[in-house]
Amino acid sequence: MHPLHFLSLLLAFISLSAAQSTGDSFCSSLVCVSAVKTSSKVTYTLSRPSASQDSDPGFGWIAIGFGSAMANSPMVIAWPNSDNSITLSQRSASSRTQPTVTSSPSSVATLETAQSLVDSSNSTISFSFDDTSAAAAVSLIWAYSATNPSSSSASANLMQHRDAGTFSLDLSKALDGATPTSTGTATATSGPQSTQPSSSEPYTELQRVLIAHAAFGGLGTMIFIPLGVVIARLLRTFWPRWIVAHWVVHVVLSLPFIIIAFALGIRATNLTYGPEASHFFSDHRRMGLVLFLLLFLQVIFGSVIHWTPASHRSKGVFKGKSIQNLLHPLLGVAILAVGWATCWLGFDEWELFSGLGPVSRGVRIGWVVLLGIFALVYLGGLALLPRQFALKPDRQLRHQDSKEQYSLRERPSPPATS
Prior knowledge:
With 418 residues, this protein is an alpha+beta fold.
């Protein structure tokens, strides 16, 4: 531990020892938590182990929560800021999602500035709660991220934790005026996969999953789905086999890519928060679910339309087109919009969960350019609607003629008469 950090901790415990202090401490490979109990309050101090600092300097943020699981445990999340100030954020979460700020916590954490220290290599943050109850054992959870929120706001977005676990402290242990040396009864369980790459590999498992998710999802939503829509809009008036190309793009490319992206998104959430976590807690994730379901529905809907004889469909309600034939393209445009929105919302989550920095401005510009290109092409294709409606009766007649000719060829010859 840095000498200045040790001195600040030592002064804190000496000043509290006169009040018949009791307390305990815990250290994992990433964080250290100590607690000192007096007759009026409990003071918690968060720091990084010196061994961890050698290979992974910095503080990022550290959180402790009062309970045995993340869900519904009151938390205090602390981090140093660039101006050497310290932010304490009291939050909670109903499941394994990013916790939100608790506006009126039952116990308010007070920053102990005299016992806290911020410097360029490490920080020690102390805070206290008013507590006049008898000292006893307390169950806690901890979490650590090496990525600082880069904001002093208590509601700042947090990069997902690198690791997490549970431990307990016995606040009835007597102190001898020095820093407690007990490690408590810690059971530091392994949390989500690290978002920081080790020296032996360029990316963590979570980062590899997110990169693949972005690749499959981006190609599916920004290239293949729009391509299938444009094929149906433009080529149907010029190429009788347009339906084959439309089918191949959506069934062979769009649908598998979206299925893979969806599965990778589920895997990323499991790596981040655990398999029991709620998966659809953000706009990006909810839109992804809607896209997944609508695309499946559209493929089924289109197949039913294609293989259902025209005579069995509903009667034409507009320009001779049945309700099914009207709804199918409208649903396609809706899927196109949902896909593009899902992709854009994913840009906002990339920095928060990948640890690889924000999405570059060039990628966002590329999104806008592609959107503009496909929009212009599709709107231009609407000018072909009169030609489409004019060709429709002629194609239906040719289709009926071919069916009759086929029927005549297959019809058995009458028996010969004597």
